[in-house]
Amino acid sequence: MPAMARICLTIVMLFSVMLICQLQVQAGASTPQFKHDSKILQKSIVERVNSNATAGWKADMSPRFSNYTVGQFKHLLGVKPTPKGLLETMPVRSHPQHLKLPSNFDARTAWPQCATIGRILDQGHCGSCWAFGAVESLSDRFCIQLGINVSLSVNDLLACCGFLCGDGCDGGYPIAAWRYFVHHGVVTDECDPYFDNSGCSHPGCEPAYPTPKCIRKCVKENLLWRNSKHYGVKAYRISSDPHSIMAEVYAKGPVEVAFTVYEDFAHYKSGVYKHTTGDVMGGHAVKLIGWGTTDDGEDYWLLANQWNRGWGDNGYFKIRRGTNECGIEQDVVAGTPSTRNVIKQISEEYLDASM
Ligand SMILES: *[C@@H]1O[C@H](CO)[C@@H](O)[C@H](O)[C@H]1NC(C)=O
Ligand SMILES: *[C@@H]1O[C@H](CO)[C@@H](O)[C@H](O)[C@H]1NC(C)=O
Ligand SMILES: *[C@@H]1O[C@H](CO)[C@@H](O)[C@H](O)[C@H]1NC(C)=O
Questions:
Q1: Distance of alpha carbon 171 from alpha carbon 158, whole angstroms
Q2: What are the sequence ranges of the domains in the chain?
Q3: What CDD domains does its record include (predicted)?
Q4: Ligand 1: which of 46, 52, 273 to mutate, most ligand atoms within 8 Å of CB?
Q5: Which atom of ligand 2 is nearest to the CA of 201?
């Protein structure tokens, strides 16, 4: 082939590759505007799920999302893809296969003295799920592993971690939250309560809230920011093998998981969820607290969401276990609570009391 023709051919090929790439990017980018503004809850989805005998779960028009558009719902799904560099520096923990585990497990009944395990919170209109899943699991682990009753502050993490954790109410990285606990600690909820306690009903929350500012001061004057900090000592990922995830929860307490949310998940009411219909809406993070098997022999994970008790099964949901449904077994993260600061405070309180 003459050189000129070869160059021309190369240029033509380059252009076609660029064109294809661009088309793919457009297809993968945001949903078309008509869908973005339409309501997330659809009667057709409820009917489709509820009339399907093999779906294994029931749907309803959840009051939590009665006035939400697809765009607003997507904004809640605040898990951003973790930067590769960050992912690779985190240790991966797996647990030996020979560990005997019960066929049913529920952290709420395993540690009934730890009230935070069974709490259902509400992230409001902020894409802060990445922070909720982490802070809630860490609070539980303080009680389970150290016998310390504490509600930790989602707000501290959300407002003060900055770009290292992602983009606040516009989404973040679950594993970065656990790293923040090791390096900076997290204050108590009493010191820095969540900014959006109203849950914000429409109208009045549009445009979506900006991320709260990092103040580093307790709202209560008698509390010191520095003294309220609770730390982690380790942050790690857990191997995606279901047995390892179960062993971790059984031995150490709840973990944070991320998974892909489809349209039908907004309609979940009860049963063991698996994706049946609808498009991808985004990545979401929640707290995994147990597992079991239904009478029909279906294995499931048990999880606490933070969309209040009006959504789902009183705020909880079950999802199929063992098949990496919606990626639920793929991005499991956790950490270890530290005695730093808290043991000192306990002994100071003890001294104060005994003086
Ligand atoms: C019913 O649910 C099953 C399991 O999720 C799915 O494979 C099947 O395609 C669904 N059927 C219909 C008609 O949607
Ligand atoms: C949803 O919007 C309707 C009409 O705009 C209103 O009457 C209703 O109270 C709203 N529901 C919620 C839960 O905000
Ligand atoms: C935590 O608080 C609850 C309720 O106030 C109490 O019943 C429980 O015993 C406490 N647990 C620990 C470990 O102190």
A1: 9
A2: 42-47+56-198+206-353
A3: Peptidase_C1A_CathepsinB
A4: 52
A5: 14
* Pocket (CB within 6 angstroms of ligand 3): 113, 115, 143, 147, 149
Nearest CA to ligand 3 atom 7: 113
Please list, in sequence order, all residues whose beta carbon lies within 8 angstroms of the beta carbon of residue 11, skipping any fewer than 6 positions away.
none
Answer for the pair 230, 79: CB distance below 8 angstroms, yes or no: no
What CATH number matches the domain at 42-47+56-198+206-353, 3.40.1130.10, 3.90.70.10, 3.30.450.40, 1.10.150.120? 3.90.70.10
> For strand 331-337 and strand 232-238, is the pairing parallel, antiparallel, or unpaired?
antiparallel
Return phi, psi of residue 122, to 5°.
-140, 120
Ligand 2 within 6 A of CB of 198: no
Q: Pick the closest to residue 271 from 32, 69, 86, 55 (CA basis).
A: 55
- Atom of ligand 2 lying closest to residue 202 CA: 14
Q: How confident is the model over 73-90, as pLDDT tens digits?
A: 999 999 999 999 998 999
Distance CA 165, CA 129 (A): 12
Residue 36 designated active-site? no
How far is 342 from 347, CA to CA, in rounded Å? Answer: 9
* Average of per-residue pLDDT values in the chain: 89
Residue bearing the CA closest to ligand 3, atom 11 = 113
Condensed to tens digits (0 to 9), the pLDDT of residues 166-212 reads: 999 999 999 999 999 999 999 999 999 998 765 554 444 555 568 99
One of 125, 191, 305, 326 is an active-site residue; which one?
305
